[in-house]
Amino acid sequence: MNQSKPRWLKTLTGLxxxxxxxxxxxxxxxxxxxxxxxxxxxxxxxxxxYGEEDEYFRQQFTEIFEYNNPNIKVEIxxxxxxxxxxxxxxxxGEKPEDPNEKMKELMNSDNPPDVVMLNFEQLPDLISNNxxxxxxxxxxxxxxxxxxxxxxxxxxxxxxxxxKIYALxxxxxxxxxxxxxxPFDDAGVGYPKDGMTWDEMFDLARRVSKGEDENRVYGFSxxxxxxxxxENLFHEMRTYTAPLQLRTFSDNAESMTVDSDQWEKVWSxxxxxxxxxIFPEPIDYSKMDAARRAQMASGEYNPFQNxxxxxxxxxxxxxxxxxxxxxxxxxxxxxxxxxYTPIDWDIVSMPSxxxxxxxxxxxxLNGLMGINAKAQNSAAAWKFIKFIxxxxxxxxxxxSVNQLVSRAKYIQPRDGMQYxxxxxxxxKPVPVQDEMSELYREFQYIGQVNDMGREYFKKAIEGTVTxxxxxxxxxxxxxxxxxxxxxxxxxxxxxMPGGGSMMMPAY
Length: 507
Prior knowledge:
Helix content is about 35%, strand content about 10%. It is an alpha/beta fold. α3 (about 55-70) links the parallel β1 (about 40-45) and β2 (about 70-80).
């Protein structure tokens, strides 16, 4: 089980300085909204990782709320004790703690939290176990307007609750299709559009791919960087396969499910695009001209040396807000970047599959919070969630360049520019597969069964076996690995490609 901290917890926002300037404004907006009880109330907020001493969480979510509500004391409690292995490693053979199970234990404890911070993957499980309070009644009672909350957030939340709302998220992140206009102009091809299918996008990529070796302009890449290995495509294409909800093994992890027509179609599509040189190829240093080799040998710094898009060699790629921010900064400072040519660019919504229209793009809901069904202070809990998902908080938070607030009114292009900012929030999150989430929590090494497929994909892309033969081999080896995992759940899998035994590293 990967216990790395969620991405939203790693983003620095500089909220403290902003809050200092905006607290009076927010206080004025919320004047007269103090708790009815003049005595001190305690609001307990449970997070997966961060506890009472965490400064970032308070800066991000609670400081302004506490300022506006002096009678409410916020206590932050962590579901996972981050200090337990600080002074020594985990004992050999001890299974890592499951954050989801630890959160459920905390919610059912004698002193349960009122507010619960969640990952989107946890939401269906908590809802199905009746552990979260439904928020629709409070939303209706207080006439809390959610009409401006973007589809990427509100539709994803409703899908997890079968149309009902059990949590809200004040910010989110997602992907878009970022494109360089020049390759399209050079090829006389129209620009990408919102709402394209993957096949339509791949067709555009073929039409703008041209040139050879160092002069090659590639049509599309799942990322901007050249990592020098075609088999990396095995992991990158998960963005393409996730909306299809393709599974590598069955609901009970008894057998593999990769020996199928659908998996064959996906692999064949990716390998065909690779062979057509639609995707960027590994750098072949032997074919570089003398000037380029001399430049690299001299150690001359090029900030975009391995960034195919920023080098103007890539027509389309997937991008996040930080990619857009880098592009804007680079264009502004082009005169100071040797060899860099400003890029005329725009964005459109992520491509989707016809059978799963408007789903995909790695939508991530940041700060997703719900109310514990056993909350001791449910009124204060709703007041807090309403506050951080309200317009005042969104207006303040929209000053950040690293996050997108959930209210469309405050999602605007940077610096007065004109680009298709709506592309960031039209897609919906991929629905959570409850069975798969449960298996990943139960078996800490089950991810290795997926990762071992990379070796079989490599064989297929190199042409030593057909696509279907490679999938059959993965099916056979994966079945053996699943059996080993079931027999010894706490041991790493040691089935190697081809069916022999070896210790596979944890990814």
